[in-house]
Amino acid sequence: MTKFIKILLVDDQSLIRQGLKVLLELEPDLEVIGEAENGDIALKMMVELNPDVVLMDVRMPILDGVAATKEINTHFPKVKVLVLTTFDDDEYVQLALQNGAMGYLLKDTPSEELAIAIRAVNKGYTQLGPGIVKKLMTQFSGSKNHQSSPPPPANLVELTPREKEVLRLIATGDSNKEIAKKLYISEGTVKNHVTNILNRLGLRDRTQAAIFANSFFDYLQESID
User: Fold this and answer.
1) What is the pTM of this model?
2) What one-character DSSP code corresponds to residue 36?
3) How many other CB atoms sit within 10 Å of the CB of residue 176?
């Protein structure tokens, strides 16, 4: 009897989810057991559905794929996360893998290769799309050659001490709930700080904030200590 690999699809575009579901269910050993339009909804579905593999988009409202991956890795360590996105961006790759993703593929990956990748991560193997390993190695080599961080921009310097604390914790992958607990403030206050940070730094979302903050992490750490 075939043992199905249970899959949870997480993507804010319903057409993408529907298309993936149709393609994946053509495979005899894959079963899509649920869909979520953002990371927050996905986390709420985890206990009930108990998936084997989560196909996770990166850019989503409420809770993006990078933060959701960290939450899943922390609270559901047996579940494997495979990041699937249209954005071929090495910073996203690094953050996703740091937060526990087992693989990273682009959405234009052929369905046969995607099915193979799902089976591989379900067994505990890492799966990276073509060219991504080279990007990561180039980025790692480049970071080794830089002895100091770039000077912080003026809009970063002008953040309040509390906003810098929040931004530093975003850089480490903490969720709003974790930040609230560490700073002894409410989640609502954290959300307000995050909104202010994005507006003042001209950033689009939490993932961009994390990438930005990692570039100036030493400054953030020193300004808080």
Assistant:
1) 0.65
2) E
3) 22
As given in the structure block, the two tokens for residue 83 are 């990041």
Residue 209 has a CB neighbour count (10 Å cut-off) of 19
Of 177, 168, 182, residue with least CA distance to 224: 168
Cα–Cα dist 94/155, whole Å: 25
Q: Tens-of-pLDDT digits for all 225 residues of the chain?
A: 567 999 999 999 999 999 999 999 899 999 999 999 999 999 999 989 999 999 999 888 888 888 899 999 999 999 999 998 876 666 677 777 788 888 888 888 888 889 999 998 998 887 777 655 555 555 544 544 444 556 788 889 999 999 999 999 988 778 888 899 999 999 999 999 999 999 998 887 777 787 788 778 888 888 876
**Alpha-carbon gap, residue 10 to 54, rounded angstroms:** 7
In Å, the largest CA–CA distance within the chain is 62
Count of residues making up the chain? 225
